[in-house]
Design a protein that fits this description.
D-Maltodextrin-Binding Protein, domain 2; signal; ligand-gated monoatomic ion channel activity; 274 residues; Iontro_rcpt_C; transport
Length: 274
Amino acid sequence: MKKFKYFSMFVMSLLLALILVGCGSKPLSKQDVLQNAKDANTISWGVKADTKLMGLIDVKDGQEKGFEIDMARALTKKILGKNGNAKFVTVTSQSRIPLLKNGNIDAIMATMTITPERQKVIDFSNSYFDAGQSILVKDGSPVKRVQDLNNRTIIGVVGSNSVENVKKYAPKARVLQLQDYAQALVALKSGQGDALTTDNVILAGMAVENPGYRVQGKAFTTEPYGIGINKDQPEFKHALNKAIKEVEADGTYNRLIKKWFGNVPGFNYREVLR
């Protein structure tokens, strides 16, 4: 009888725990991200902190700056109104999707190319920027094009699709992958690799800050950047796509393109105007 009593108490405790869990908040997949953002008057954006011209934390004032930062603020105003708040959370190529899936951020705006592989895991808005992959080399480098990287070392970033793209053109290239672009650039400067690869707009930011290095050759891929969001959020996706069209239509988009890329040597900003 005593054993039965303890067993009954265990069952009752288990049932109570299940009931309490059932009465808690909705699972992340069932939450309405757009409604939550409206209720909080805030959209939480995952952005880069080490990518000059796109997303960078300025060491002088600690503020996030760049094209994607300004775009996120503009889109937030379109969705939530003029008093809407854009909150920024620093992400890397490796951490951005896990942070989104865990509910730490509402959306990713961090130089992320729309790919079929990523679309299996998350959803995307329409493209808000069309980049192309290229390589960064030291002045005087014998590497003139991506095919020259065969039997040489290419540096990339973990979580990016850039290295795999290079391997299509230079299958014999050796690969060195690091956690972020800052580490990758240090590796290039210290001679650990022959070239650094990622999207041309990111490399342009590096070239601006590092005399003696240049973007080499034409872009060899097309990289449409999209805003990453969790799946099953059709209202949020619609709101983002609508906002992107609006900032393009009212001239905000082209103004921001000129602001951030109008004076970058070797980068023709007119090719990305909309």
